[in-house]
Amino acid sequence: MAGSSGERTRYAVIGTGARAEMFVRALVLDHSATAELVAFADVNQTRMRTHNAWLADLGAAPVPTYAAADFTTMLDKERVDVVLVTTVDRTHDEYIVAALRAGRDVITEKPMTIDVPRCQRILDTVAETGRNLSVAFNYRYNPLHEKVREVLAAGEIGEIGSVHFEWLLDVRHGADYFRRWHRDKANSGGLMVHKASHHFDLVNWWLDARPEQVYAAGKLFFYGDEAGRRHGYARDYDRVHGAPEAADDPFALHLDANPQLRALYLAAEAEDGYHRDQNVFAPGVTIEDDMSVLARYSSGATMTYHLTAYSPWEGYRVMFNGSHGRLELEVVENDYVSRRTAGEVKGAALHGVEAAAEDGWARITVHPFWERPREVPVPGHTREGHGGADARMTGVLFGGQTDPMGRAATARDGALALLTGLAANRSFETGAPVRVADLLTID
């Protein structure tokens, strides 16, 4: 993704919520020799002003701001080479397609989009224009996940017969999806798309395979108004700010208590009416919080997957069963959320910027047949930026660093990850297995 004039590559960001912050910091602080941030676009001018204020704090000059409706004008006026799409998931396709057709390359946050028609439109546009679309699957760059791929590719446990993947979101991180725009499946595709596409992409990458059939069951068990009343958590308010009933609610997020969230959301809501602090037990939740998936892959392997969004601790376990043994990955992000409040935001207020405050641990173990298990050392794994993944990813995307493991995800990769979640959503509705090829055919 080179600059159009042989100079630094010129980047613009569309969507200036918290998700954009990691990319902005990387451009300004880490890759200014090869990359240049030249513009912001958003539906909300206050959020763009807030990001420009943060640029000043970083010692960088402010950049021009554009209304989202003037997106294509921005591309030409600012001579943009690459667009970073960090908007609400349901609008990703609008800006991806517009940028590609305008002759620009694109990097989009995951998920690439939220449904089959949008996905097909993106793939068709990539084919028509010949431009590059990268999907920011930062989990591929986590040293733990890289090491898993190395061990599997080396054949240490032989041919993979099955995978079990359990992901636990604690009642801080998990709850946050139910107080934001993500709570409406029309915006996010639900956690099978917005969150689990990360995990499904990892399995595709680890196995070097594609999903073929998916059967799934999902429900809203913990959050939402009905479950809140049933379990005794319900409080009678719509959003936290200005609600006396929220004062002692352990699930309440108090925007005015966090300077970053106050500036980015509370001060900006008069422009677009978006409330970042909705009651997780209020009506209007249309996504699931407890999901089980059974998938079959082109390699012949199967996967059982479970996502729980209301756990007392956060982390994940992945187990691979092979013809010569077993590999286990265990990651505990935190194990003492009970000492904290569910109304906090996990880690930094801005996504992935700082190290998590909790103590955690991670371990990869290989269990060969008839031998003692051995732990696999993982150099480079840290507690910052998703285990060190963010810096590695932006180094490839912005800094032109080499990528011998093929971690940079393409539009095809984005679609394959998306399809497992979309097939799961369809199976939720029908109660039947879903052939992935019946949703979308990918070469």
Structure description:
- The strands form two sheets. A nine-stranded mixed β-sheet has the order 14-13-12-11-7-10-9-8-16. Strands 3-2-1-4-5-6-15 form a seven-stranded mixed β-sheet, with helices on both faces.
- Strand 5, helix 5 and strand 6 (133-136) form a beta-alpha-beta unit.
- The model is unreliable at 351-357 (pLDDT under 50).
- It folds into three domains: 9-136, NAD(P)-binding Rossmann-like Domain (Rossmann fold); 139-223 and 285-382 and 408-439, 2-Layer Sandwich (Dihydrodipicolinate Reductase, domain 2); 225-272, no CATH class.
- With 443 residues, the chain is α/β, with parallel strands linked by helices.
- The protein has helices at residues 21-30, 45-57, 71-77, 92-101, 116-129, 143-153, 173-176, 185-188, 191-194, 196-207, 225-231, 259-266, 269-272, 389-397, 411-430, 436-439; strands at 9-14, 35-42, 65-67, 82-85, 105-109, 133-136, 160-170, 211-219, 290-297, 302-311, 314-322, 325-334, 361-368, 374-375, 409-410, 434-435.
- Helix content is 32%, strand content 23%.
Helix content estimate: 25-40%
Head-to-tail CA distance between termini? 24 Å
Q: Count all strands and give the number.
A: 16
Proportion in β-strands? 15-25%
Whole-number mean pLDDT? 93
- The name of the CATH superfamily of the largest domain reads Dihydrodipicolinate Reductase, domain 2
Radius of gyration: 21 Å
Rough outline: globular
Count of folded domains: 3
CATH C-level of the largest domain: Alpha Beta
According to CATH, the fold-level topology of the largest domain is Dihydrodipicolinate Reductase, domain 2
Named CATH architecture of the largest domain = 2-Layer Sandwich
What ranges have pLDDT less than 50 throughout 5 or more consecutive residues?
Answer: 351-357
Strand order in the largest sheet: 14-13-12-11-7-10-9-8-16
Structural class per helix/strand content? Answer: alpha/beta
